[in-house]
Amino acid sequence: MSAVRPSFLLALLFLSILLTCRSECLDTIVVKIVLNGETKGEFFVKIAGGGGDFLVGKEDLRTMGFRYPSGKTEIIEGEPYLSLKSMEGVVVVFNEKTLTLEITASPTLLPKKTIDLLPQRQAKVDYPRDSGGFFNYGLGYSAGDSSAIRSFDVANQLGIRQGDFLLLSDSSYTKTPTEEKFVRLLSNITYDRRQRLDRWVLGDFFASSGDLGSSLNLGGLSYSKVYRIDPYFHRNPLANFSGLVSLPSEAEVYINGARIRSEKLAPGQFELKNISYYGGTSVVSVVIKDPFGREQRLAYPFYFTDILLRKGLHEYSYNAGFLREKFGDESNRYGRPAFSAFHNYGISDTLTAGFATEGTSERFNLGPQASYLIPNAGIAFLSASGSLESGGRGGLAVLFTHGYQSGGINSRVLLKGLTRDYATAGDENPAEKVKYEGAAGIGYGGTRKLGSLSLDFDTIKKYQVQGLQTGTITYSRILTENSTLTVTFRKMKGQTPSNESFAGLTYYPWKEISLSASYKREGDTHTEAVQVQKSQPVGEGLGYRASLERADSPTTGVTTVNPFVQYNGRHGIYSGEYRGDYSDGGGKSEIYRISASGGIAYVGDTFGFSRPVTDSFGLVKVGGLEGVRVYQSNQEIGRTGAKGTVFLPNLGSYYENQISINDKDIPIDYSIPEVVKYVSPPLRSGSLISFEAKKFQAITGVLKIKIEGEVEPVEFYEVKMNVDGKEIAFPTGKGGEFYLENIRPGSYAASFGFKEKTCIFEMTIPGSDELIIDLRGLICENIR
Hints:
This protein has 784 residues and is an all-beta fold. The strands form nine sheets. The chain has a 24-stranded antiparallel beta barrel. A seven-stranded mixed sheet has the order 4-5-3-2-1-7-6. A five-stranded antiparallel sheet has the order 52-51-54-55-57, with no helix packed on it.
């Protein structure tokens, strides 16, 4: 056996020393970290490899922005450290003068930033579930130069909401010289599940299975997916865009050259989600600018449509019940059992497929349907349905449609064919049985300079009567900032062929006023008309329309005068209309009509009278203050009355309605924490919208204690007082002075600790309109 060399032993000893002091011999320094151009702050790092490597804590790397830091790991003092030199895609430069560690990492190692481009929801929204109800009424009276047209009619609607359940019922009453009739129309109970976006209806409702079916009026049960329960939810596919940036950058998003958004991007991956547009082929572009002014332009086309469902979404409606018969004439006549249903599913963002069906005890139909986005060529829809009737007769129907829109160009095609024996669930007039339909159109909605032009052709062929073909050309153009021209020519072929031409000019001299003049020729009849109109305000105010028309035919001429006026009042809508037809031969026909409508609403233990409730409604309370202006979407609705309330008759169901008050109408001695609220009410519901306006009132005084006949101030003690079941505390100051705010009038038990005992007294606050109530001297004598 040979002897071991001393040099070998020395090398072995040196190596063992290095291994034993690996962690102890590393230098620890504090450095400023700059990651891909972004300063991340100061961190402790360890120098290794003679300064050629740096060890950084794994958690520190995550804090800097590394998603999944990986590399050679060492455990130092129980914590994992990574060697930056061993990390793939990472380059490190150390500046000794500034003690800065500049790290350049591949963007794939850094966090992914997701930016949602849909309009942001309000941060604070009230979702009321108040119980309440409303009753709408409408009264109308018509009369003229003939007693046969004299009539009185009443329409009404009752709505009651309890939690998530809504009861609605409509009816009408009509009285003429020959008839008097009361009819119940639709009555149902609706239950919406807001989180799941579905709806149950028990009672009367209309149901449709699609274009190859019919519209059924049923009394029964309905279950549907209703995306409009959340009006901010997009059921249709939207554009998404993703990429990488290695430096802090700015992204500008464009659609068809118009910028819609700018966003700051940190180094790493990014995704721009839910880019929306109104429709058709568009070019989505993203321009990325880095800190050095370099630009990267990315673009791709996307077809925006509301026909397709997003991948994975369902849309459906299942309905069953009994057919309503003689609807509008009789109240409670139900016939054969019937059903109607459709169900569509987003297989992908380019393909939506499903089925439609309907039937009764005598006949039914069933068939598939699908919508498909043809790349760069629009949306195609295909539906087929087969029917079967009792007795064995069967039929077939097919429907194909195609629509395309790109920039200012749009087109449409429709082809529909039905065999003679194809049957739907609804009652059909055999004479109106359609054999085939066809339609095609193309339009250009160009620049303001060129205007808009559309060409349309429609044809329909029926089995028992002659068909009809129609060709239409329409041109419109904005002439000036406040005037528009429309020209139309239509040619019809059928049992009574005719040509129609129309030219109209509309001028807007002021914001709510429009003036129009038109000329129309139909066959041998020429009609000229002029009209002035003032738009109806959203809140209270006056609107009107007045027209004068002259029609000349080969046999006679008729002049028609038709003024109409409507006033939206605080508690109702009132209108009057006159129509007079005066012929050249001296004959005339005159009709007058006056009407009034309104609503009675209940919510928050308060009844109120308002204009008709067309959707949801609200009762605004402003702390009992009168004369405070209330706004809905920045439009004045009215002022609070003597009880500090005002009704809002037109809140949008499920929308985030902006309700605000004018703080200038709040007295200076009142405090109010907020002047704007966002309210999202359920369907046809009443909501109590309260703005807490509290009158500021200070309560001051001096508290003293009586001990063995001597009275001395209670200085620098904490007093506790019970107010409406809650304990409040307030301090006393020099000389026993104290100060309170906004305690309503009444007597309250109070106490404070004094020399290991408790002194109990009663504080009585009188009713007063004064800004400051001085209770003067209070003396506590009850010491226990």
